[in-house]
């Protein structure tokens, strides 16, 4: 069949998928909206609330109560492909998975599938604590769409894979969370859907089991020709598992292609600006303080994105105080591009905690010492908090970023070694 | 090999399509049948887990109707003096309560379907109707046990020499119970769908069921209210549940009368509620996870 070589075997096709959510409280107002929507429907007119709606960007404040969690998503998945769906928090990954697993309907668009889709349950969903492991295997399997006969034929394999033989007749409520995940994964892995959806489950369970799980998923995809859609923040897992990827950003597909290109695109997508400035109307903040400007500054007092690992990095925040009767302090969260939260720092001895600042423009700088963080990209957030009682006034994520470069030098941990160097911290420690 | 499809003719043979709006009415019985094992396992789960970690276990099934019957007998028959004819008042009440309990259990159990199962509905798809259906079936088992208690008391009173006669129409009793289950299911699906958006309905339900009991001829013969409160008789007369309770007492205890018109009305009402329930439930299941 020459034809089959040319023609792609598409098992799943998403066409213009969009999903709109209503923000804020559902309660007062919804009846009015419902009636209005219904009235438009009766007259054969378009849904009045579909027109408005913002791009889903958490960091900017929207103008309407409706938001597009997904907008015009198109992609195709071939049979036997492991598709990685990557994107930052809030990019719309989970919404997409929910639509794919028929949990919620898209607002517009359609998904066509040539195979049964099953999703891997989150830890213990669908498990009943009072029932034994064995009973739960049946229950969970049935929830995922297996018949009793199918489960019985796979029961031994499932139990063996989960590594829970000893506890299989014990109620699941006495299981550790790791055991529950193992069991849940085992059931789903031996289920025979043509398309399996996996969402971040591998974050749980010990290293040995994660390895086993990734291996099993590779078997599923490669050996058995089944299709896997994998969603994770863990770039290492995505890389080792997926063949193709889709990068989502603010509810839109920004990149589609081979997994390595996707990861590059995603990492590049990380915050690569060292300087951000807002005008007062758009600036993040609360009723008494507005953030105006953030700069990443190197040792030579230049605003720059790239920094040598041996040098200190200063991040300078400029804000405006609108009322001079508030006590507060500053905070910073630092993330690397894999989404790992590296550190959180509070300005706990700040003078602003005891004496209010005057109205006007003020600056605050945090110093990140050199020879501390590993090479790679980082992004940081800024927060204004109150103590007693502890309260976060605002927390602005993904403001600025920087890149740490480690060169071969006798002053660095790396020394003369040029290869891959693991770890998120790169301090030079003493060996005695 | 299942997955080695012929590529030449795959252009249009999609297995299924996920689209925004549901068809106006869809009760995919084929799909429900595919998931029958899940239905069975849900029923099993409900039955197994209810009485785990209780001391009295299944005895709880019996305690509730017995004590309610005793209370009713004291209040309505001894104090208020409602006559139950030749039938022992306790047996009269037990019959009404046993049947009524099945209805409330179905209604209560199904009416928070979406809310109680939000976690699992939010993760995985299966025909949602399986969940309320499993409630109706597992309550049938509970009803069966409670009915056995009724039978035991029936025999007890019979041996005591009470004037009890069997009515042949009792053969149709299962049909009556099925109707009641379907009515509870339909109403429960309706309410569970509305609760996802407006939580007010779950408050309404709690006291609504209590009020409904007084309008359903559970502790008095239907004729009584027509005699004593002719003005409000219609409230009972238009209540399909009153006919079911009345008819089941006719079948079990051979008292009162059967109203053919009333039964036809009840059947029609049940079918209508069930269809509306399925309709609304279907509409809700596709998007409730956004509003719950």
Separation of the first and last Cα atoms of chain A: 68 Å
Low-confidence stretches of chain B are 1-11
**Level-1 CATH class name of the largest domain in chain A:** Alpha Beta
Strand order of the largest sheet of chain A: 6-7-8-4-9-10
Q: Give the SSE string of chain B.
A: EHHHHHHHHHHHHH
* Helix percentage of chain B: 55-70%
Shape of chain A: globular
Classified in CATH, the superfamily of the largest domain in chain A is P-loop containing nucleotide triphosphate hydrolases
Note the quaternary state here.
Answer: heterodimer
Spatial shape of chain B? globular
Q: Helical region count of chain B?
A: 13
Order of helices and strands of chain A: HEHHEEEHEEHHHEHEHEEHEEEEEEEEE
Task: Specify the structural class of chain A.
Answer: alpha/beta
Could you give a short account of the major beta sheet of chain A?
6 strands, mixed
Percentage of residues in strands of chain B: under 5%
> Could you tell me the strand content of chain A as a percent range?
25-35%
**Total strands of chain A:** 19
């Amino acid at each position: 069949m020459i034809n089959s070589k040319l023609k792609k075997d598409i098992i799943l096709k998403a066409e213009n998928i969009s999903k709109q959510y209503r923000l804020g409280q559902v309660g007062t107002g919804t009846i009015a909206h419902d009636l209005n929507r219904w009235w438009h429907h009766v007259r054969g007119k378009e849904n009045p609330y579909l027109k408005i709606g913002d791009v889903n960007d958490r960091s900017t404040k929207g103008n309407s109560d409706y938001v597009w969690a997904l907008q015009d998503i198109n992609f195709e998945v071939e049979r036997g492909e492991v598709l990685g769906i990557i994107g930052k928090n809030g990019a719309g990954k989970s919404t997409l998975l929910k639509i794919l697993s028929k949990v919620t309907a898209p607002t517009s668009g359609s998904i066509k599938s040539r195979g049964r889709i099953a999703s891997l349950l989150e830890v213990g969903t669908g498990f009943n604590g009072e029932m034994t492991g064995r009973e739960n295997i049946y229950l969970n399997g049935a929830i995922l769409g297996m018949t009793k006969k199918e489960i019985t034929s796979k029961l031994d394999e499932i139990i063996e894979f989960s590594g829970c033989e000893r506890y299989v007749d014990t109620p699941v409520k006495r299981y550790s969370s790791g055991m529950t995940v193992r069991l849940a994964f085992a059931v789903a892995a031996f289920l025979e859907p043509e398309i399996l959806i996996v969402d971040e489950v591998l974050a749980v369970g010990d290293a040995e089991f994660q390895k086993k799980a990734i291996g099993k998923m590779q078997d599923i995809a490669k050996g058995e020709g089944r299709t896997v859609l994998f969603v994770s923040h863990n770039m290492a897992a995505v890389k080792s598992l997926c063949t193709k990827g889709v990068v989502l950003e603010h509810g839109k597909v920004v990149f589609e292609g081979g997994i390595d290109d996707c990861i590059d695109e995603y990492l590049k997508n990380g915050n690569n600006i060292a300087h951000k400035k807002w005008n007062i109307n758009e600036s993040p903040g609360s009723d008494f303080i507005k953030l105006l400007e953030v700069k990443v500054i190197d040792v030579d007092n230049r605003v720059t994105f790239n920094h040598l690992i041996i040098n200190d990095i200063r991040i300078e925040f400029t804000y405006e105080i609108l009322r001079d009767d508030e006590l507060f302090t500053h905070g910073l969260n630092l993330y690397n591009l894999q989404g790992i939260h590296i550190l959180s720092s509070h300005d706990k001895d700040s003078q602003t905690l005891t004496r209010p600042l005057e109205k006007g423009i003020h600056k605050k700088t945090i110093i990140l010492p050199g020879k501390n963080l590993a090479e790679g990209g980082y992004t940081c957030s800024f927060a204004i908090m109150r103590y007693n009682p502890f309260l976060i006034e605002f927390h602005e994520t993904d403001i600025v970023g920087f890149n740490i470069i480690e060169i071969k030098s006798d002053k660095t941990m790396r020394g003369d070694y040029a290869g891959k160097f693991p770890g998120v911290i790169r301090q030079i420690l003493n060996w005695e | 090999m299942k997955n080695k499809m012929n590529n030449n003719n795959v252009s249009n043979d999609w297995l299924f399509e996920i689209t925004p709006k549901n068809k106006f009415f869809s009760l995919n019985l084929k799909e429900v049948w595919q998931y029958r094992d899940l239905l069975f396992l849900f029923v099993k789960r409900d039955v197994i887990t209810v009485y785990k970690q209780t001391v009295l276990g299944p005895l709880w099934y019996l305690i509730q109707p017995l004590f309610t019957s005793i209370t009713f007998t004291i209040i309505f028959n001894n104090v208020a003096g409602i006559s139950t004819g030749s039938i022992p008042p306790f047996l009269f009440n037990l019959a009404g309560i046993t049947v009524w309990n099945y209805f409330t259990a179905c209604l209560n159990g199904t009416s928070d379907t979406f809310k109680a199962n939000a976690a699992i509905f939010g993760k995985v798809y299966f025909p949602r109707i399986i969940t309320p259906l499993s409630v109706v079936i597992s309550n049938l088992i509970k009803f069966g046990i409670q009915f056995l208690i009724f039978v035991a008391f029936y025999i007890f009173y019979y041996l005591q020499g009470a004037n009890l006669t069997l009515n042949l129409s009792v053969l149709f009793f299962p049909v009556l119970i099925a109707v009641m289950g379907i009515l509870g299911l339909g109403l429960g699906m309706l309410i569970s769908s509305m609760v996802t958006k407006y939580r007010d309905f779950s408050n309404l339900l709690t006291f609504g069921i209590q009020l409904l009991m007084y309008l359903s001829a559970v502790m008095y013969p239907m004729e009584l209210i027509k005699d004593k409160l002719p003005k409000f008789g219609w409230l009972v007369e238009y209540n399909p549940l009153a006919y079911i309770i009345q008819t089941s007492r006719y079948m079990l205890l051979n008292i009162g009368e059967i109203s053919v018109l009333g039964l036809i009305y009840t059947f029609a009402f049940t079918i209508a509620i069930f269809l509306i329930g399925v309709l609304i439930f279907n509409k809700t299941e596709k998007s409730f996870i956004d509003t719950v």
